[in-house]
Amino acid sequence: MVNIPDYFAGKNVLITGATGFMGKVLLEKLLRSCPEVKTVYVMVRSKAGQCPKARIDDMVSCPLFERLKDEQPDFAVKIVAVSSDLTLPELDLSKEDQSVLAENVHIVFHCAATIRFNEPLKDAMQLNVLATQKMLALAHRMKQLEIFLHVSTAYANCDRELIEEVVYPPPVDYRRLIDTLDWMDDELVSTLTPKLIGERPNTYTYTKALAEYMVQQEAGDLNVAIVRPSIVGASWKEPFPGWIDNFNGPSGIFIAAGKGILRTMRASNDAVADLVPVDVVINATLAAAWFSGSQRPKNIMVYNCTTGGINPFRWGEVEYHVISTFKRNPLEQAFRRPHVNLTSNHLINQYWIAVSHKAPAFLYDLYLRLMGREPRMMKTITRLHKAMMVLEYFTSHTWVWNNDNVGMLLTQMSPEDKKMFNFDVRQLHWAEYMENYCMGTKKYVLNEELSGLPAARKHLNKLRNIRYTFNTVLVVFIWRVFIARSQMARNIWYFVVSLCFKFLSYFRASSTMR
């Protein structure tokens, strides 16, 4: 087989969702590593008064594209912004654009989707299922199409413990559901949603499962592949370590922990955190398109792009590395020193939420009111709790993934392609990756410069001193109010203190003898 860059040489590629997190990385990697690609059409809608071209121009000016800009200064001429809205009839494409795409496109990467877990079912169906259906209809008109690659999620079938690389039939016929939702009002849909999604935790995973099945049913003679990433995190190596540009998923949780706002979280220390770096997903996606496009397998190829079964990393380890990184390299103006308690017990978690989240937030807002400033911490805590509730299901469960197709894909690649499009997560060193991830949130999400680290460390030391002072005052208060007034409490207190002194004396004597 030809290698991956040669396969894409001279081809016209269409990408949906190019302004999203994964879409940006896909666009950058495709242009940088496949420099002979002919044209990349990106379907973009107007937003906030910006036309599609202006949005793309803004996007390619971000740090993600700096390496590409250095290597290929004229790369932007290959990007063609196509005005489109995936929720509208015929994708809101002009007749001229429909004709251009139908005549020229060789490869489609359908990445667009809503990633909001708690999206109303009607909206999630519109963006994740109906939009995919319209994209398939457009693909059927493309005369030179070689591969339609659909980006799904590894959690589409999270109601199962073992997830194979196959398309599973959903519990309901997607066609009947589309027809039913068309006449239902929003209130009725909201009432029926828990019954419809069953054991799945949210509308996102439910509609992504429906979309997979719909792709299988309506692909016809199209050559189709499906890539299922798990929890997509910051970049591992490309175009540089630690790139991340949003608060979605674990990134917002990491930042909240670094700021000292997040103190407790319902999660199992031993549950596998199936984080997968975004560049790993994109490299696997490009390789999957190359393999299916050049080999044209008889069946739809599904790729579980996960790490849990190959290089497992647990939530307890995630917590340790996040906290240790932010203690060494603190975020600016932290609210408290970083510390998070993970517990799988609901009641214990609720207790710590009240003590470590709500009480300090209430006191801080009271302080702000007294200073004549607008209170904000309770609003922040409320948003944080909503995000944690969304993630609880994924931080408390572990799945078994089959990765045979991903392994097969690696064996089909040349040594040069394996190096250039590396998605072998056996090579991933988690401690190093997590440090880069946390530093990426500091630099690219919060826009904090490394030059501010000395001041941030000084602030963290100040918070430590405040904590020690508070604990000392609390001990003195308890002594004066409770212990000093009771003879029994004083006896217990003196016994505990004398016991501590005896232990200290014993260890001191032992060390002297050595």
Summarize the structure.
With 514 residues, the chain is an alpha/beta fold. Helix content is 53%, strand content 10%.
CATH topology of the domain at 4-248 and 273-308 and 399-413: Rossmann fold
Strand arrangement within the widest β-sheet reads 3-2-1-4-5-7-11
| Fraction of helical residues | 40-55%
Percent strand? 5-15%
Tell me the name of the CATH homologous superfamily of the domain at 4-248 and 273-308 and 399-413. NAD(P)-binding Rossmann-like Domain
Radius of gyration: 27 Å
Largest sheet, in brief, is: 7 strands, parallel
Q: Cα distance, first to last residue?
A: 69 Å
Oligomer: single chain
The CATH class label of the domain at 4-248 and 273-308 and 399-413 is Alpha Beta
CA-based shape = elongated
Do you know the CATH architecture of the domain at 4-248 and 273-308 and 399-413?
A: 3-Layer(aba) Sandwich
Low-confidence stretches: none
Secondary-structure content class: alpha/beta
Quick check: average pLDDT?
A: 90
Q: Helical segment tally? A: 19
Number of separate strands:
13
What does this 3D model show about the protein?
The chain is of the alpha/beta class and 514 residues long. Among the domains are: 4-248 and 273-308 and 399-413, Rossmann fold; 452-513. It is built from 19 helices and 13 strands. The chain has a seven-stranded parallel beta sheet, sandwiched between helices. It has a two-stranded parallel ribbon with strand order 6-13. It has a two-stranded parallel ribbon with strand order 8-10. β4 (107-110), α6 (121-140) and β5 form a beta-alpha-beta unit. α12 (315-328) crosses α17 (430-445). It is elongated.
